[in-house]
Structures are given as C-alpha cells and as structure tokens.
Amino acid sequence: VLMSMCAGQEMALVHAVFGGWRTTYVKDRAxxxxxxxxxxxxxAANLTFVEYKKSQLSNLRNVxxxxxxxxxxxxxxx
Length: 78
Prior knowledge:
Layout: H1 2-77
C-alpha cells in the first residue's frame, strides 16, 4: 500500500514539473516573439528618423548656401 502511494506521488511530481516547464517555455517563447516584433519596429523607426534628419540637414545646407551666395553677391556689388 505504501509503495503504491509513493508511486502515485512520484507521477504527480513528474506531471507538476513538466507542466510548470511547459508553461514557462510557452511564456518565454511568446515574450521572445514579441521582443523580436518590437525590435524590428524600433529599427524601422530609427531608419525613418535618420532619413528625416538627413533631409532636414540637406535643407539647412541649401538655405545656408543660398544665404552665403546672396551675401557674396551683395559684397561684390559694393
């Protein structure tokens, strides 16, 4: 009788351990997938931001060049 009780508890322990392991595995897998998704979104947003900053810098250079050309012409006429 004692041996059958111990065997039953052993199987319950095995089921509990594997059940807990499976739950942890599924949760970790979902977090990993979510992390990869958001990591890709962050990288895309960073690329968009870099392109925007390049565009703004180019516009600023053009404005400064036009201003410098205008100032040079004004000095030449004086």
